[in-house]
Amino acid sequence: MAGLLPALVAVSQKAAEVARLCRAEEPLLRLRPAEKSGPERNARFQRDFKTLADVLIQELIKHDLGTQFPELRGHIHGEESSEFRDAQGGTVTVRVCATPGDTVALLLAVLGPEQTRAAELLAEAVHREVTLGDTDLDGIDPGVSPGDLGIWIDPIDSTNEFIGGREDVAPIDGIAPEGLCSALVLVGAFDRHSGVPVLGVINEPFFQRDPQTHRWQGRYHWGVAHGDTRLCSLSPPLPRPRPRVVLSRAESEAVRGALGSLGGGPPLLAAGAGYKLLCVALGLADAFVLSLPTTFAWDSCAPHAILRALGGGVVALEGALRARRAGGTGEPPELRYHRPEPGRAGPQRWANRGGLVAFVHPPHLRAVLAALGELGELGELPGC
Ligand code: 2IP
Ligand code: CA
After folding, report:
1. Quick check: 259 and 368 in contact, CB under 8 A?
2. How far is the C-alpha of 194 from the C-alpha of 135, rounded, in Å?
3. pLDDT at 48 over 80
4. 254 φ, ψ (degrees, to nearest 5)
5. pLDDT greater than 70 at residue 380
6. Which of 160, 238, 306, 380 could bond to 254 as cystine, CB 3.0-4.6 Å?
7. What is the DSSP letter of 263?
8. Quick one: which of 107, 116, 100 has its CA closest to 84?
9. DSSP secondary-structure letter at 170?
């Protein structure tokens, strides 16, 4: 269906506007994030939070896509639950109401009755019609019906950087080690039957500040990878002779050391699973390697579709090393997005438990697996 990709891009633009609003408006920025606990908490962090922006963005994406494509209803999933703490300390189910006025009333329950300006600004952004004007998207038909797709939403990836990220972080070799720029909106579509990621949109709400207005400017990237169709807003980056790797700041010393043998320079560190995946798609790194079980379907689905559109992919690190050790020469198993892990509860059902390697050029994947191969035999891969 031709309109699905523009719809994903348009809803990511609306989401990015809400994210920028929540950073710009003092009462929204001051609003304490809700702390996640129990199975909802990502073990990657001592304390894991979600903001009103996370929840509102997820619900607006669900609302808009479900309205435009009724066959998607029930198959649009996100990281966050829609409950948020209200001004009295109770909980309110955040959703897009039938009218902006109703949405204002619901937001006032969260923000407090005195925050009418913030509630009205948010409701206006949530109910606004988005006009893309991106002629590259006109007429692109991914060749797949929404009735065969599921959606994964990460409303704000790298929430920690969204909450407290600095705005003036200087990139190192083009990659920001941390900061607000690594907070992204991720919307991915996967084939419900095979789990293969087929459409992906990555939106960077805080890409750069306009030098004149000083307002945040965003940008977005998209990819289609279905059947024989490979289309992308990006071009495949030139392969470096020796792969440059980007890692989570939580990656083990053993993995960091083993990857040093690739000869592509010391591994670069960055915040944001989505951001590191984007760095690979942009060619700022040749691979993102993670041995920890700290990413989820919503982190990787959209970037994975874009990497597939560029000729690459995202494999499960543990499975790839096991296949290599067994003498397998075929393609390692790529991540899939349609089946929860049996025996797990809540978000843990959707963890990329065997870690991951993201790449554009297969020789770089092979080089990474060769460098880590010995580690795997020594059992030094902490997450796997
Ligand atoms: C997080 C976020 C973190 C990442 C973690 C993800 O998603 O991308 O930055 O940890 O794995 O699950 P790291 O920074 O080490 O890559 P969210 O912020 O949406 O919870
Ligand atoms: Ca995330």
Report:
1. yes
2. 31
3. no
4. -60, -45
5. no
6. 380
7. S
8. 107
9. P
Q: Output DSSP code: residue 216.
A: E
Residue of higher predicted confidence among 214 and 44: 214
pLDDT digits (tens, 9 = 90+) for 222-274: 999 999 999 999 999 999 999 999 999 999 999 999 999 999 999 999 999 99
CA distance 53 to 47: 18
Q: What is the pTM of this model?
A: 0.95
Enumerate domains of the chain plus CATH numbers.
Answer: 1-130 (no CATH), 179-384 (3.40.190.80)
CA distances from 272 to 134, 158, 247, 275, 322 (A): 27, 5, 10, 5, 27
Identity of the residue numbered 364: H
Where does residue 252 fall: left (phi above 0), alpha (psi -120 to 50 degrees), or beta otherwise? Answer: beta
What whole-number distance in Å separates Cα of residue 221 and Cα of residue 41? 29
pLDDT bucket at 376, cuts 50 / 70 / 90: low
Atom number of ligand 1 nearest to Cα 79: 19
Instruction: Report CA(178)–ligand 2 centroid distance (Å).
Output: 15
232: three-class secondary structure by DSSP: strand
Among the bound ligands, the one closest to the CA of 276: 1
State the ligand closest to the CA atom of 43. Answer: 1
CA distances for 334 relative to 195, 348, 349, angstroms? 10, 19, 17
With a Cβ cut-off of 6 Å, ligand 1 is lined by 42, 44, 79, 154, 157-159, 248-250, 271-274, 294-296, 299
Pairing of strands 245-248, 268-270: parallel
3-state helix, strand, coil in the chain (%, to 5): 40, 20, 40
Using the mean position of ligand 1's atoms as its centre, give its distance from the Cα of residue 365 in Å: 22
DSSP string, 284-353: S-SEEEE-SS--BHHHHHHHHHHHHHTT-EEE-HHHHHHHHHTT--SPPPBP--S-PPTT--GGGGGB-T
pLDDT at 99: 97
**Among 211, 169, 185, 213, which residue's Cα sits nearest to residue 22?**
185
- According to DSSP H, which parts of 206-272 are helical? 253-259
Task: Clarify whether 159 is annotated catalytic.
Answer: yes
